[in-house]
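W.,

You were right to be curious about this one. When I first looked at the sequence I had no strong expectations either way, so I just let the prediction run and decided to look at it fresh. Below is the sequence, 316 residues in total, followed by the output.
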Amino acid sequence: MAFNQDANEFHWLMDMLESVEVGLVVLDLDFHVQAWNGFMEHHSGITARQIRDKVLFEVFPDIPEAWLTRKVDAVAMLNTRAFTSWEQRPYLFKFRNTRPITGTEEYMFQNLTISPITAPNGEVEKVCLLVYDVTEFASSKRALERANEQLAKLSMTDRLTGLLNRGTWENLVDAEYERFRRYGQATSLVMFDIDHFKPVNDTYGHLAGDEVIRHTADVTRNNIRQSDSAGRYGGEEFGIILPETDAESARVICERIREAIEKSTVSTSAGDIQYTVSMGIAQLTETPENYMQWMQKADEALYKAKESGRNKVVVS
């Protein structure tokens, strides 16, 4: 009677291990496969009979052997479980993702638990790997992170041009002002705008005007360095922070932008548009008491460029 009960319990246990939606792999300490359940058969295409007593790394050469060996050695030595999440290592077994809901992910994301299996004398003789499919959760989290990154980027950038928006750019001007106060390195600020922009809008329409603004942003982006920061200050007005740059070096950069715009033509559905920009430069000195006064100096240089005929670069 007891034998039949034990057999029934064993059969029930094996049936559960075969049908559960968790991968179960039992390895001896030389990494020979001793057990391989239905989940592993389904996702690998390899049956338990085919893989039994084979070395895991020979069947799955993509598995990081050194990493898994260290993990298993620690489990066997300390006789304690180890856990690895998909965020630490996306997967142990390179199984293709088969869930239609999370079809955007190419491979199955996995959490892994490694548990010791002891002999009657208490010594660890095998380990059990439990492989959990967490693709749906991981995919959702990754999508949320991407969305948050996009929202953060949108909150910092101007939608029309992709340049920094006014608030973000002004914060950087303030930070650069404080950096100058601390270290005293040369730094310059540029304010510039599009000449006669209202007639462009009036003649060609606001959509064409937007194309001119986008073109200005693209030319600016292509002619500054990675360390520089360009922003759309408002309407047709822009600003550039040029760290570690004196007024003369800033003038060279601005002339490059001004000439590139002067020589270019913006093709729009309303017609081809040629235009110019005026630019003002202020190298930071000890005189400004805050970043707003520094911006004012650059704005004054811009005003002089406009007053003296436009399509010019003026240094304050």
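Here's what jumped out at me. Residues 168 and 240 are 12 Å apart (CA to CA). And, maybe more interesting for your project: Residues 135-156 form the longest helix (22 residues).

Coffee later to discuss?

I.
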